[in-house]
Structures are given as structure tokens and as C-alpha cells.
Amino acid sequence: CMLADDMQTMLIGRVIQAFGVSGPRIASTAVIRDQFAGEAMARVMSFIMMVFILVPMLAPMVGQWVLNIASWFHIFTLFLLVAVFTGTWFWIRQPETLPASRRKPFSWAQFFRSSLFIVTHKPVIGPTLAMGCVFGGFLAYLSASQTIFQGFYGVGEMFSYIFATLAFSIGLASFINSKIVMRLGMYRVTQVALIGSVVFAIIFLGIIEMFDGLPPLVVTIGSLFIGFFFVGLLFGNLNAMAMHPLGDMAGLGAAIIGSLSSIIAVLVATTVDSYLTVDLFPIGAGFLVFFTLAFIIIRLSLQRPDKPVQSLS
């Protein structure tokens, strides 16, 4: 990407990057599951998801800083430096978390058997689907945010700062979740957060209707700040709930859960954003539909966590 001189080369490089970053994303979840389960994993995942969400939301500000002092291709220079630093740090500091006695040779039979378990086991697939719905609603905002703030409100010069302000809400929620989940339990926190998300969506949609589709900027930012706080409580908990029963299938489980929830999220976001033209009604309606769907899925699929599955072999 640093050396690209046309869009085709740039896109090829970005696809290769996507394959590259998927490995650490899956490995980090599997490493955490090897060492923690239940509320303890939810607590650790809160810190992980805080970084996972905050970094993309702060990226426009960082990118703007890079562009202010250097050319556009130095954004990819920054990517390279970050990759080298984190890769070296991980290699030096992170020990192997799966003992040799628990490792299994790859076989297609085991792969399909484990995959079938993951996609048919309600305590796993339920939080995965709910995570896709919640992340999809959030991703709809994320992909439309530039249109909303630069196009609808005309505050392009403040876009990166508004973006960072809303990111702070999710970071704050993740931090608070790490403090309360061990005491209240991830199931209780998740249900309260889902109810809060639905209530927020109802009120936000009502506000949008009240102002004929486009509330004042400060009202929109304040509403989204509150709504994203509930979303921030959900990311780490839903991930931990989905991973809890998987035991020795942590690697495959993290891959399938991450892939499936991301595919659902992209489909949700694409659907919602396709209706975005002149006002915020599609965003508000998307929040309400998919946050409600996530709440229903969790209520139907989960009671209390299953005992972790150590092996299907």
C-alpha cells in the first residue's frame, strides 16, 4: 500500500492486510479463553474490546494528524511500525497458553464436528447472533458517521473530535464493565445493557421524529453518547458468553464467532445505510430493530452458562 500508484494495487494490498490482521484478532480471543472463562473472561475482554473499539474510532483523528505533517502513504508507514512493534512485543512477552497435552492435530473430521457444535449450540450461537446485531447497528453508524456529521450537519472540521467524544463513551462503558462484571455477573449486566439499548433506541427514534428527521447536533451527540455506553457494556460480555462453553475449541470457536458476527454486522450495516439519504431515521430505526432482536435472541437462547466443553474427541 505504501508503494501503490493505482487503486487496484491499493485494494489488493488492503485485502492482504485484512487476512493479516484476522490472525491476531482470533489468536487474542483464543489466548484469553485458554486462561479465563465466564465473568473473569468478560472482565479481560472488556479491556480488549475497549482497545478494539477505541482504536478504529480514534483513527480519523490520528490519520488527520499524519496528513497534517506528512503524505498520505505515511499512514501505511504508521501501520508498518505498529505491526512490527506489536508483533515483536507479542513474540517476546506472550507465553504459549495451550499446554502440549491439550493440543490436537488438525483433521477435517474434527474440524467439521467442532464447527457443527459451535453453530448449533444455543449458548454459543445465541450470543454470536446477538453480537452481530448489536455490532451491526453500531457499524451502521460508524460507516455513515462522515455522511451524518459532514453532510447533514456540516461540521466536517470537527468530525474527528466528535468521533473521539463518542468513542470515549464506549471506552468508559468497557472500563466500568470490567469493574462490575465480577460482582454482578455477565448475564445480568448483558440483560440490563440490552434493555437500556432498546430504551435508548425508542427514545432516540422519538427525538428524530420530533425534529423531522434531524435533531440539533448537540442532541444527536448526547443521545449517541448514552446509547453507545450501553453498546460498550455488551461487546466484551457477549463475546465471553459465546466463548464460555468452548473449552479446547477456543481457537476454532473464536474464528467462527468472529467471522459469523462480523458477516451479520456488515449485512445489518449495509441494509441500514442503504436507506440513509437526508435524515437520521434509518439509523434510529436500525438501532431499534436490531437492538430489540439482540435482546430477544439472548432471552430465548440463554439462561445460565453451560459447563465448558473441553473436547469433542
Mind explaining what this structure looks like?
The protein is mostly helical. The protein has helices at 7-35, 38-69, 74-93, 108-120, 122-152, 159-184, 186-210, 217-243, 250-273, 281-301. Helix 6 (159-184) packs antiparallel against helix 7. The longest helix has 32 residues, at 38-69. It is globular and about 60 Å long.
Strand content: under 5%
CATH topology assignment? Growth Hormone, Chain: A
The tally of structural domains comes to: 1
Structural class comes to mainly alpha
Output mean pLDDT. 85
Cα(first) to Cα(last) distance is: 43 Å
Overall geometry comes to globular
Name the CATH superfamily assignment: MFS general substrate transporter like domains
User: What is the number of E strands?
Assistant: 0
Work out the radius of gyration.
20 Å
The number of helices is 10
CATH architecture: Up-down Bundle
Please name the defining characteristics of this protein.
single chain; 313 residues; Growth Hormone, Chain: A; 10 helices; 0% strand; globular; disordered C terminus
Care to give the gist of this entry?
By secondary structure, the protein is mainly α. It contains ten helices and no strands. The N and C termini lie far apart (43 Å).
Q: Could you give the topology of this structure?
A:
Blueprint: H1 7-35, H2 38-69, H3 74-93, H4 108-120, H5 122-152, H6 159-184, H7 186-210, H8 217-243, H9 250-273, H10 281-301
Helix pairs in contact: 1-9, 2-6, 2-8, 4-9, 5-8, 5-9, 5-10, 6-7, 6-8, 7-8, 7-10, 9-10
